[in-house]
Amino acid sequence: MIVWIETFINGITLGALYGLFGLGLSLSLGVMRMINIAHGDLIVLGAYLASIVMAALHCGPFTSLLIVLPVMFCIGWLLQRCLLNFVVGLDPLAPLLLTFGLSIVLQNLLQEIFTADTRSLPSGDISLAGLQLGGVSLGLLPVLTTVISVLVFAAVSLLLSRTSVGRQARAVADDLSTARLVGIDGHRFFALVTGFIMVAVSLASVLYGIRAPFSPTSGPERLLYSFEAVVLGGLGNVWGTLLGGMAIGIAQLMGAKVNASLGPFFGHLVFLVALIVRPQGLFSRAKS
Amino acid sequence: MTSFTVSSSRTATRVAGTLLLAMLLLALLAIPWLTGFSTQRLLVEAMTMFVIALAWNLLAGFGGLIAIGQHAFIGVGAYSLFFLSNSLDCAPWLLLPLATLSALAFALLSAWPMFRLSGPYFAVGTWVLAEMLRIAAQNTDVLGAGSGLSLDAMNNIDRWTRNAGSYWAALALCISAVVVARMTLRGRIGLALMSVRDSEVAATACGVSVRKAKLWIWLIAAAMTGTAGALAYINTLQVTPDASFSLNWTAAAIFIAVLGGIGTLEGPFLGTLLYFFLRESFSAYGAWYFIGLGSLAIFAMLFSPGGAWAPIKRRWDWDPLGLRRLMPTDATPTLSLKTGEAPPNMARPPQRTQ
């Protein structure tokens, strides 16, 4: 019984990471109506950047964020300005195929630069530390991941509901042409949004790199988990993405308990079943 | 409401065209006697890839269904053919229709959850499906788990027959895929899909069943892809989960469609030529080859979204497969507007809807 409770809690902590993966995707889908197929590869790129910074400055993974965050923000801003803005707002086909091409380019560039070997972000003692809660033992790092993830989600939802930038984002999401009428420069705003998405992505990358080894080809799988978190959570529902991610995380770890190699399969299965039973998302009140 | 006929632009060059086609067909049929095994294998690869790209293009370019998980059908087709062929100990080419059927059955089943998604969600949703099948195949002992199946039924067939059989099967598949695609697009489903593509709201208002048309094109594309996948693996004699349920298949199909021209039937043909030319010339560069290919696709999307076929069509106004529908000038519809005046945009000279 304790084993199952542990698995469940571990699923929640893994899912919090998936939710963080999904946050960027959820924002780009919500605000720009486009899905970035290279999202997973950008997560992996962030992890590689962190590993470069850590090796160069001999610092820990969290300190490396001081450099990785602004760099990733710039990458996102440039990506949107120089590439994605040309296709955003068109039919779903153009942005999809463009980012698909980008994903292939990124994967192979990473492979060319960093070889196909897996690596991970060494985090020292913190990765070994654990907690004991009523007979259930938990790693400190997964708990920390969950706390950070929840804080990021809280910050984003505050940003969306309380600030001027958030109001702009909601206006653009509701109706781009009307938002333009009242003075929002769509393309400049999109660049800002993608920059912010990359900030969320780099947080996710570092937490991911500490938790699991990554390689240049790990991107697509991250994209799939992010996507499932977004759809399960209900479209346009920020907190839903976190809960959706947790549902996937729990399903994966519970599944892995049944059959070690079938973990991700059960995550996908939960996604499919949820699609059939509740197409509007598990945590969405609105009818689709 | 007055009705008007929508005519297709074909002229009397038909006889000459038929003759030319017949000669071409004879030449293509004779290829196993004229070339070596490696050429034949490359041709089979190119022809199956063409059919897969054609199917992807039918979905994305005509049906508005962007399927990143199209490789699901490749694995389903290949695995069902290998499994059946080995259990029945029967020449694999004869069982190709069964591979088609199993891909169809899978498509029908998968439409249930997948058609709840649309646009970009559908695209990634199909990918999830393909990934599930890959993991499932990896963990199914009957299907050889991680190491897959080899085509034992081929053991007592000599090499020449093996290669020639695959080649002829691929040729037959290629021709039937083009015929089916052309018939579909010229028929009711094609008209429905093109009207949906132009304006979904208007099409629905006219009574077009969007869902039904999309389901049909999904089934047709699945059948093509499944058969092509089965044939591609007959050609290599070994199927594994990682290779058959691999995104590389869909990536190649997307490159071909993007380079050749999305939303045309000629595009995939042109794209396949381009793709195989690039692959045979540059694939030795490994990762850089893929970087180049990806960048090329990005450039094509940005600067020539119609692919390589678009400039050709613009320059020579060519429609070899007769898909374009022209609106005759004298058939200015009065519709049922009480004023008796046709809306101004209806009275324009022949206008292409494609």
- Strand-residue proportion of chain A: under 5%
Assign a percent range to the helix content of chain A. over 70%
Output mean pLDDT of chain B: 82
Q: Work out the helix count of chain A.
A: 11
User: Could you say which overall geometry of chain A the principal axes of the C-alpha atoms support?
Assistant: globular
Main beta sheet of chain B: 2 strands, antiparallel
Number of strands of chain A: 2
Instruction: Please outline the major beta sheet of chain A.
Output: 2 strands, antiparallel
- Name the overall outline of chain B: globular
Spatial ordering of strands, largest sheet of chain A: 1-2
Radius of gyration of chain A: 19 Å
Q: How far do the termini of chain A sit from each other?
A: 38 Å
Q: Low-confidence parts of chain A, pLDDT < 50 over ≥5 residues?
A: none
How many β-strands of chain B, per DSSP? Answer: 4
Strand content of chain B: under 5%
Report how far the terminal alpha carbons of chain B are from each other: 24 Å
Number of helices of chain B: 15
The overall average pLDDT of chain A, rounded, is 86
Helix fraction of chain B, binned, reads 55-70%
Notes on the protein architecture:
The complex is a heterodimer of chains A (288) and B (354). By secondary structure, chain A is mainly alpha-helical. In chain A, 73% of the residues lie in helices and 3% in strands. Chain A has one domain. Chain A has a two-stranded antiparallel sheet. In chain A, helix 1 crosses helix 9, helix 2 runs parallel beside helix 4 and helix 9 packs across helix 10. Chain A is globular and about 60 Å long. The mean pLDDT of chain A is 86. The two termini of chain B are 24 Å apart. The C terminus of chain B is likely disordered. Chain B has a domain of 212 residues. With 354 residues, chain B is mostly helical. Classes of the chains: A mainly alpha (288), B mainly alpha (354). Chains A and B meet through helix 4, helix 9 and helix 11 of A and helix 6, helix 12 and helix 14 of B.
